[in-house]
Amino acid sequence: MSRVARVVVPGNSHHITQWGNRQSAIFETDADREAYLRFVGKYAALHGLSLWAYFLMTNHIHFRLPEFALSTMCMALPNKQ
After folding, report:
1. Residue ranges of domains in the chain
2. pTM value?
3. What is the DSSP string of 11-69?
4. Dihedral angle of Cα 20, 11, 50, 44, to the nearest 10 degrees
5. Residue 73 contacts residue 51 (beta carbons within 8 Å)
6. Beta bridge partners of residue 16, listed in sequence order
7. Most buried among 7, 9, 27, 72, by the most CB within 10 A?
8. Rounded CA separation 72/60 (Å)
């Protein structure tokens, strides 16, 4: 079944989430969170991306990105599979 295409409003931002498989933990320690943020920061700097906000939970992550950064950042997010 197809899904509705994402609405892109120029100058607006996107809220994206990333979940662990079956909502399992992505981060077990603060060191895990710090390593993930270092990875995201390096990738964003490398590609000139702006990350407006983030929130790291144990089993999922929230990001707020400008519309132009969405596809680039989504390709960079590591998948825990």
Report:
1. 13-76
2. 0.69
3. T-EEEEEEE-GGG--S-SSHHHHHHHHHHHHHHHHHHT----EEEE-SSEEEEEEEGGG
4. 60
5. yes
6. 63
7. 27
8. 19
CA separation for the pair 46, 3 (Å, rounded): 32
- At 81 the pLDDT is 45
- The number of angstroms, rounded, from the C-alpha of 23 to the middle of its chain's C-alpha atoms is 16
Under DSSP, the state recorded for 73 is H
Asked whether the predicted pLDDT for residue 63 surpasses 70, the reply is yes
The amino acid present at 24, given as its one-letter code, is S
Q: For the chain, how big is the Rg over CA atoms in Å?
A: 13
List beta partners, residue 61.
Answer: 18, 56
